Amino acid sequence: MATKAQIRDRAATMLGILGEGQTLPSYESNDMTESYEEVYAQLSRKKSLSWGPDEDVPPEYVSSVVVLVAYNRAFDYPIPEERFKRINFLWSNALLEIKELIGNNAYSTPTADYF
After folding, report:
1. Rounded Cα–Cα distance for residues 98 and 16 (Å)
2. How many domains does the chain have?
3. Which terminus of the chain has a lower count of CB atoms within 10 Å, N or C?
């Protein structure tokens, strides 16, 4: 399980705006938290979630959500082209991974037995 703060920090690290042993300035911290909330809302609207807004992100979703949060802000921060290409590639894979996870967790109605 990962908290919003852990997701935020991992996404900031992926973007290259947070280095080891550093803390995010309040503006960037708030911006990355807002990015998580935007991604959460998008996934919620698509019924692609298995956790609530105040719950930690389940382990199987963490890496995909980190990528989505980073991609959501990739155009807002000056990042090298190669880093952007990597995030863009990971973004498409993250979307597929989440769709697959939701498909595997989908509830199916049991078949009724009539006697």
Report:
1. 24
2. 1
3. C
Alpha-carbon distance of 37 to 47, in angstroms, equals: 15
Token pair of 84 as six digits: 């952007």
In a domain, 111, yes or no: no
- Mean residue pLDDT across the chain: 89
Prediction pTM value: 0.86
Residue 70 has which token pair? 């980073």
- Please give the residue range of the domain that contains residue 91: 4-105
Burial letters 22-61, b for 16+ CB under 10 A, else e: eebeeebbebbbebbeebbeebeeeebbeeeeeeebeeeb
Q: Is 105 exposed, middle or buried (0-12, 13-18, 19+ CB in 10 A)?
A: exposed
> pLDDT, tens digit, for every residue of 79-98?
999 999 999 999 999 989 99
- CA end-to-end span of the chain: 44
Position 114 in a domain = no
Q: How many residues does the chain have?
A: 115
